[in-house]
Design goal:
Blueprint (H helix, E strand, L loop, with lengths): L14 H23 L3 H8 L1 H7 L2 H10 L7 H13 L15 H17 L3 H17 L6 H17 L3 H18 L2 H5 L1
Helix pairs in contact: 1-2, 4-5, 4-6, 5-6, 5-7, 6-7, 6-8, 7-8, 7-9, 8-9
């Protein structure tokens, strides 16, 4: 007879969770296809579905997706972003279950979803702290396919600082983002 300590219960995913997981997986495939072909329109296609995904966003599904992209071969910037995002959702540091390194586009897309989760759940202070980290990481990574994601991350970062009443604190970070966008010819980020 099994004792209560040895019994593990598998919780069946709800249809809403399954739908969110499939949307996340589809968006990651769009991003990976955009990276492989160096085409930005795949990134835009993934970003277009954010608003429908935003309604279904749950912390366990998001944390599970983040944990699936943690790898020992990730760059330091990507690994730090993924760990900070997972910790903000109440998950411990993931050990690294992915077989290949997470691309920066996928990492920042997941970070953008974490930003939206905190914004929708009125966790503005936590969101502002995370956004600052995400923007710094986004400015360190410079790729053509990152531009649409970086512009959204900067927008939501400024929104967090506006809601918390600390817009003046965001000014140096926003000026650095503008300078980097100007020097690297990132048109969408420069427009933000």
């Amino acid at each position: 007879m099994a004792t209560p300590e040895n019994v593990t219960m598998e919780v069946e995913a709800t249809p809403e969770q399954k739908l969110a997981e499939s949307h996340l997986a589809r968006n990651v495939k769009f991003l990976e296809r955009g990276i492989a072909t160096a085409e930005v329109h795949y990134t835009h296609r993934a970003l277009r579905t954010i608003f429908s995904l935003r309604k279904r966003l749950q912390p366990d599904v998001l944390a599970e997706s983040i944990a699936a992209h943690v790898s020992k071969s990730n760059s330091q910037v990507v690994a730090d972003c993924l760990h900070r995002a997972a910790e903000s959702l109440g998950q411990p540091r993931a050990a690294g279950t992915a077989t290949k390194a997470c691309e920066p586009e996928v990492c920042l897309f997941l970070c953008l979803l974490v930003q939206l989760y905190h914004l929708d759940h009125n966790e503005h202070e936590r969101g502002a702290q995370l956004s600052d980290v995400f923007v710094e990481a986004a400015l360190d990574l410079q790729r053509r396919t990152l531009d649409p994601i970086v512009s959204r991350i900067i927008f939501y970062c400024s929104r967090f600082f506006e809601v918390t009443g600390r817009l003046a604190d965001a000014r140096p970070m926003l000026l650095r983002a503008l300078q980097t966008a100007t020097l690297t010819n990132m048109k969408e980020t420069k427009a933000m």
